[in-house]
User: Fold this.
Amino acid sequence: MNRVLWALWMAMAMPAAWAQGSASTASTVYRCPGPPVLYTDSISPAEAKERNCRTIEGAPITIVQTAKPAPRAGNSPAAGAREGRASDAKVDPATQRQRDADARRLLEAELQREETRLAELEREYNNGKPERHGDERNAQKYLDRVADMKSAIARKQQDIAAIRRELAKLQ
Assistant:
């Protein structure tokens, strides 16, 4: 898409450059392939050959300087620091300790809830032989429920392991 836009822009710019009667400069201009296509006169013939650049002869080149875009409000370092999002912003050690303590307390509470739920699931699972429900006259229905219970226990164990890893990072 960029090449199409570039070609369209060049097609519109060429007649304007010819109309201006701009004379070709004494230096050689090269067209180097790649995204983005590079038009330059600041490389040596050896560099041009190395990059597989072609010379542009007889075609006037118009150079358009663009202004550097101003940073958006949310992307400037000062804005990030004000909003607490800058990665290099300094945090007071006491504040960081408090945040770590809060995070640890939340993770420990979540770990305790998950371990309690895991114990309930394992008790209900009964080593792969849970009690049959009244609506499970069909053996397949019972086997499906047992398989679901087994996968729920495995997920809960993975969740607990993940919480423990997070807690270890805070220690």
Summary: The chain is about 55% helix and 5% strand. The mean pLDDT is 79.
